[in-house]
Amino acid sequence: MDRLRAFEVFVTVVARGSFVRAAEAMDTSPANITRYVSDLEAHLGTRLLNRSSRKLSLTESGVAFYERTRLILDEVAEVEALASATALRPRGRLRINAPLSFGIVHLAPLWPRFIRLYPDVELDVVLADRVVDIVEEGFDLAIRISRGGSTTHVARKLATSRNIVCASPGYLLQHPAPKVPADLIHHACLGYTYSQTADDWHFVGPDGAASSVKVRFGMQTNNGDTARAAAIAGAGVIWQPTFLIGEDVRAGRLVELMPGYRMPDIDILAVYPSRRHLSAKVRVMVDFLAQSFAGTAAWEGGAAALHG
């Protein structure tokens, strides 16, 4: 039995939810898929999958074996990709998706240096705040701003950004500053359409206790810079990541509110479909971005001045 192939078959069956769909994904017959899984179970001396006419489910042994097998396959893919990247010179078109504001402010200044380092790579950068399907839409790599990582693709963390609640000095002259999250119900807030929590704003207090408040939006937008501009003009209370508004806070255009109450941090991730057969152009770009954002991000340096 080709053990590595059997591992791949088993993981694909679990991921796809059926022998037929696994066979389609691996370009083979359902009979071959069934044989690999049966041989693997026989070799291990335990049942990994419960089979029924409607669905497959993992046994207790199957759950543990699946998690470990995925790690093994990832490690093998990492070694293969490293060898491939070492042997091949990065070249060709590299399609990247990134959020609009982050792409303009923090990524655009990096591209000239990357081009100088890798002149045979042609960059095709598409900026959009919506979450694209990188496989369906033909992207090699996406930069994501996320609280929960990626559940469907490989993700490498590049940096972290705090989320902070702010308002302009002009707004605060007209409205008393909120002291605790519950005070926000008395304020006009500015919402970000793509936020996972919508009008439920979540906080962790000075005592470590979690709380949330349902705010009232005076305005919503699908672009962070639009919300930022409205907040600076005095339209209401905003929460945004420090990579977008950290400099405004340092310059006094916005004032951080309720500094004792923290919103969950967000991660900046490089997301790509798979570690297996990772092209040299994607690998060098991910490494380049990780190196560029290594250490304390510049936007956090600006925000840190708020707390002395």
Topology of helices and strands:
Blueprint: H1 3-16, H2 19-25, H3 30-44, E1 49-51, E2 56-58, H4 60-87, E3 92-98, H5 100-107, H6 111-117, E4 121-127, E5 141-146, E6 154-161, E7 163-167, H7 169-174, E8 188-192, E9 200-204, E10 210-214, E11 216-221, H8 224-232, E12 237-241, H9 242-251, E13 255-256, E14 266-272, H10 280-292, H11 298-304
Parallel strand pairs: 3-4, 3-5, 8-11, 8-12
Antiparallel strand pairs: 1-2, 5-14, 6-14, 7-12, 7-13, 9-10
Structure write-up:
With 308 residues, this protein is an alpha/beta fold. It folds into three domains: 3-86, Winged helix-like DNA-binding domain superfamily/Winged helix DNA-binding domain (Arc Repressor Mutant, subunit A); 89-152 and 271-293, Periplasmic binding protein-like II (D-Maltodextrin-Binding Protein, domain 2, 3-Layer(aba) Sandwich), CATH 3.40.190; 163-256, Periplasmic binding protein-like II (D-Maltodextrin-Binding Protein, domain 2, 3-Layer(aba) Sandwich). It has eleven helices and 14 strands. The chain has a five-stranded mixed beta sheet. A hairpin with a 4-residue loop joins β1 (49-51) and β2 (56-58). α1 (3-16) packs across α3 (30-44), α2 (19-25) packs across α3 (30-44) and α4 (60-87) packs across α10 (280-292). The model is unreliable at 302-308 (pLDDT under 50).
Low-confidence stretches: 302-308
CATH architecture descriptor of the largest domain:
3-Layer(aba) Sandwich
What is the makeup of the main sheet? 5 strands, mixed
What's the helical proportion of residues? 40-55%
Mean of the pLDDT scores?
A: 86
Write down the domain tally: 3
* Total beta strands: 14
Assign the CATH class of the largest domain: Alpha Beta
- Radius of gyration (CA) equals 24 Å
Number of helices: 11
GO molecular function, one term: sequence-specific DNA binding
Family: Belongs to the LysR transcriptional regulatory family.
Domain HTH lysR-type: 1-59
Organism: Pigmentiphaga aceris
